[in-house]
Specification:
Blueprint (H helix, E strand, L loop, with lengths): L1 E5 L3 E6 L2 E7 L5 E7 L5 E3 L1 H7 L6 E2 L4 E9 L4 E8 L1 H7 L3 E8 L7 H15 L2 E5 L20 E2 L3 E5 L5 E5 L1 H30 L17 H25 L3 E5 L4 E6 L2 E7 L3 E13 L2 E13 L4 E7 L19 E4 L8 H12 L5 E7 L1
Parallel strand pairs: 7-10, 17-21
Antiparallel strand pairs: 1-2, 2-3, 3-4, 4-5, 5-6, 7-8, 8-9, 11-12, 12-13, 13-14, 14-15, 15-16, 17-18, 18-19, 20-21
Length: 371
């Protein structure tokens, strides 16, 4: 059995039967916080569930765990071991990250191997991928220069990314976004009118509805089902109208003021201070199509210091373009890495790097997944 100490009086025990996280109080009394057994749901204490916003029942099926991640936090000067959870659970918790253990020390080399070993053993027990994120390398005397970022503006179909005053970045909804919303509003408005007209005309007429071939016990219900459908399409149309009228249509990355501001026209709707932002995440959901790896859709999220993720851009590129630099169509790997400028980058990756740079060179991560 391997036994590894972690911060806050934690002990990690691992053997062929499973993986455990134990806590010891000032009297040396042991309490099990987390247990992992092959093929079984993760089991954890009520205290662990409450502090990590996990199910109060104390069990988490493994299908909700995407991978085990061990990485160095420059802000905390510590190794962090945790789980990256699926989006379904992240939407409920407010974060995909679930911290398990930490190893603080100014020197990242001190606990690197212990933290990595703990993560590898946990991933092996529960049968998920393990991702190791090493510290960013310090500047050397002659570092290899990053590739220059493509010049702005960047056309992201429904977003236009431009340089504003100073180092500020502005993302604006394009005319394509508005036109698509107007067409959607027109379409669902038309469907609503058709459903209402047909249903009312049928109710007010003496037309006999046939019984043959109709799955309903009473065909007289059909006009009323039409009215229900009209309410649904009306709801979609109203939601689209509100989207056009009130949804922020510009996003300002204020490098001078150190904040991210959502705008409707020139009116501020909300903002997040740069001090509350831990990092920038750009995510690509990839899939195979006709022998190529293409981008299904992309997201840019702000990872906040409280662990939550705030999405700022959702991008579905027209025509699902090939993923730049991805030549192997037979293999799509899920991983999270620190993103640096390269010669081959997507529009979303480039935009995320510009945002991170405007926020005071905040670290930017690339999250790749297969659909």
């Amino acid at each position: 059995m391997s036994q590894i100490s972690a911060a806050e009086n934690r002990i990690i025990q691992s053997d062929s039967n499973g993986w455990r996280l134990l806590s010891y109080n000032e009297h040396g009394r042991e309490a099990e916080m987390l247990r992992a057994t092959g093929g079984q749901p993760l089991r954890f204490s009520a205290e662990f569930a409450l502090s990590r916003r996990l199910p109060a029942a104390g069990k988490l099926p493994l299908k909700y765990v995407r991978m085990v991640v061990c990485g160095w936090s420059h802000k905390d000067a510590a190794w962090m071991l945790g789980l990256l959870l699926v989006d379904e659970l992240a939407a409920i918790r407010g974060s995909r990250w679930c911290e398990i253990a930490t190893w603080p020390d100014p020197d990242p080399d001190v606990f690197a191997e212990l933290a990595k070993q703990s993560g590898e053993e946990l991933a092996a027990v529960i049968g998920v991928r393990f991702n190791f994120v090493p510290p960013r390398q310090p500047d050397a005397s002659a570092p290899a220069p990053d590739a220059p970022l493509p010049t702005l503006p960047i056309d992201m179909d429904e977003w236009l990314v431009e340089q504003a005053a100073g180092d500020n970045i502005i993302l604006s909804r394009t005319r394509r976004w508005r036109n698509r919303r107007y067409l959607r509003l027109l379409w669902y408005g038309l469907l609503t009118a058709i459903y209402v007209a047909l249903s009312v005309a049928t109710i007010q007429s003496d037309l006999a509805l046939p019984n043959s071939g109709i799955m309903l016990p009473s065909p007289e219900l059909l006009p009323y089902l039409g009215l229900v459908a009209a309410l649904i399409t009306l709801g979609i149309a109203l939601n689209t109208a509100l989207d056009i009228a009130y949804r922020p249509n510009r996003l300002l990355i204020d490098a001078v003021g150190g904040r991210v501001v959502w705008l409707y026209g020139n009116r501020e709707r909300r903002q997040i201070d740069a001090d509350a932002i831990e990092s920038v995440y750009v995510t690509h959901i990839l899939r195979r199509r006709r022998g190529q790896v293409v981008i299904d859709h992309s997201e840019i999220n702000l990872h906040l210091t409280d662990g939550a993720f705030r999405r700022i851009v959702y991008h579905e590129p027209s025509g699902n373009p090939p993923m730049p630099g991805h030549a192997d169509a037979d293999h799509i790997e899920d991983y999270v890495i620190a993103l640096r400028p390269t010669a081959q980058m997507s529009a979303a990756q480039t935009t995320a790097l510009y945002i991170a740079r405007a926020l005071g060179d905040t670290i930017c991560y690339y999250d790749q997944r297969e659909k």
